[in-house]
Amino acid sequence: MSENENENETTEETPDAPVEEADAVEAPAEDAAVADDAPEAETGPAPQSEPKKKRKRLPRSLRPHKGGRQRVRATERKPISREEKPEHERGRSQERRGVVVSDAMDKTIVVKVDVIKSHPRYKKVIRRSVKFHAHDERNAAHIGDIVRIVETRPLSKTKRWRLAEVVEVAK
Hints:
Layout (H helix, E strand, L loop, with lengths): L2 H11 L2 H22 L1 H5 L51 E8 L5 E11 L6 E11 L10 E6 L7 E10 L3
Parallel strand pairs: 3-5
Antiparallel strand pairs: 1-2, 1-4, 2-3, 4-5
């Protein structure tokens, strides 16, 4: 609002002000007459208006909305379309080649896989080996065999690999 509008409002309110004062002068006289008739009413607490409604727990539809785009409701629903599942639902399972280190357990072998990779910063070739527990259903693999193992669902606490084939038998 501009300053001119503020001045106009104050000037408009001034003629009403004396009328309110006159009403205020008459009101105490009426209150005194009522006070003589009912002295008990004045000694008790004055009746209070209803408590202010809390805005805290309003349903979402009644809460004040901030500016933004309103979502337009669709008049009719789209039909649900289901696509066929692909042949290989999950990603390709990993395959590793390694040497059988232990076959002492029943239907389980321990395969040592050598990993050769270059250091990301220093470019030095690093040789590491990792041991995997693999499931061997027919107890076909023995110590020293070169085998191919594939990743599978957890079969036990440590077994997450399965014997795919014996590539080379030990001499």
